[in-house]
Design goal:
It is built from twelve helices and two strands, in the order ααααααβαβααααα. By secondary structure, the protein is mainly α. A two-stranded parallel ribbon has the order 1-2. The relative contact order is 0.09.
């Protein structure tokens, strides 16, 4: 319990730092939570019974999760309006593990040196593995980025790519983007993929630790297709498999064998409509983003063919 109590203290201080100017509101809320904690778990004074310990762990986890989500939204809101040195200086005062990692990610992702960002992501992955080597599971302590933050900094999904190809991938950063599904025409094109011999969306989901990595790879690609069309136009982020290499020329993509797939044009047209309507891209930008999206997803998917064995 002492570890959870210490973590809650850090998260609470960060929430106050980023919260509304009226700090008394946050303090009153915390006092209310403390009273509810004691009532719910039967805590009286400083004595904690064995039966109350499990209840307290659950209550603390829920409170930490609530405050962390509030912190992530506050960070995203501040960065949405301004990136002035004063804003970053405030974020660098944060002490809770998730908030510190987000601040470090933003600092690296806004730098011109993309190699430095990639090195930081690798170091972060390995640090997370060391911290979680005894208890690998998703929980409130795992870093979840607000969708609006990822939309503002489209290179951030590179921090979510599979790294370990084991259950350790469960502890890597996630994102809370929800809502729309892929257009049916795009799904049909991605399913019709001879390279992977199976459905693009389900080809490597299954039992066994290696599937966590392949499932994460699918999730990152789907996230990008649905929520980050601007990333296909960015000079900082090309394909997921080789983000620092330049995109192929349009004519080179157009010469790929699968552009003759009868499902290709309907898939591209569906994505163009989605990108124009939902993200207000111009026609040329939507066309370019859609072509690159399908190229990245279809070409990249061949790299995970190994998970299917010799089928």
């Amino acid at each position: 319990m002492s570890a959870q109590d210490g973590l809650l203290g850090l998260v609470y201080r960060d929430a106050l730092l980023l919260g509304p100017p009226d700090a008394d509101t946050g303090k009153k809320e915390q006092l209310k939570w403390l009273r509810e904690r004691d009532r719910r778990c039967g805590v009286k004074g400083t004595e904690v019974s064995d039966s109350a310990t499990g209840c307290l762990r659950s209550v603390y986890s829920a409170r930490i999760d609530t405050l962390y989500k509030r912190i992530m939204v506050a960070i995203a809101q501040r960065l949405a309006h301004d990136q002035a040195p004063a804003t970053m200086a405030t974020l660098q005062r944060l002490e809770s593990p998730q908030a510190k990692r987000v601040t470090q990610l933003i600092s690296h992702v806004t730098a011109d040196d993309t190699k430095t960002f990639d090195t930081f992501v690798v170091d972060m992955d390995e640090e997370l593995a060391r911290e979680n080597h005894e208890d690998i599971h998703p929980g409130p302590e795992n870093l979840t980025l607000p969708c609006c933050l990822v939309e503002r900094y489209p290179r951030l999904p590179l921090a979510m790519r599979p790294y370990f190809f084991s259950t350790l991938d469960l502890i890597l950063p996630n994102v809370d983007c929800k809502g729309q599904a892929l257009p049916a025409a795009a799904v049909k094109f991605l399913v019709n993929n001879s390279l992977t011999k199976q459905n693009w969306l389900d080809r490597c989901r299954g039992e066994g630790t290696i599937f966590y990595g392949y499932e994460r790879d699918i999730d990152v690609r789907e996230l990008r297709l649905l929520h980050l069309p601007g990333s296909y136009l960015s000079a900082q982020f090309a394909s997921i498999n080789a983000p620092d290499e330049p995109w192929p020329e349009p004519e080179d993509m157009a010469s790929t064998e699968w552009t003759g797939d009868p499902y290709f044009k309907p898939a591209k047209d569906a994505l163009v409509r989605l990108y124009r309507q939902q993200f207000r891209l111009s026609v040329p930008d939507a066309e370019r983003a859609a072509l690159r999206a399908l190229w990245d997803s279809r070409n990249g998917s061949g790299g995970t063919d190994a998970c299917l064995g010799d089928n």
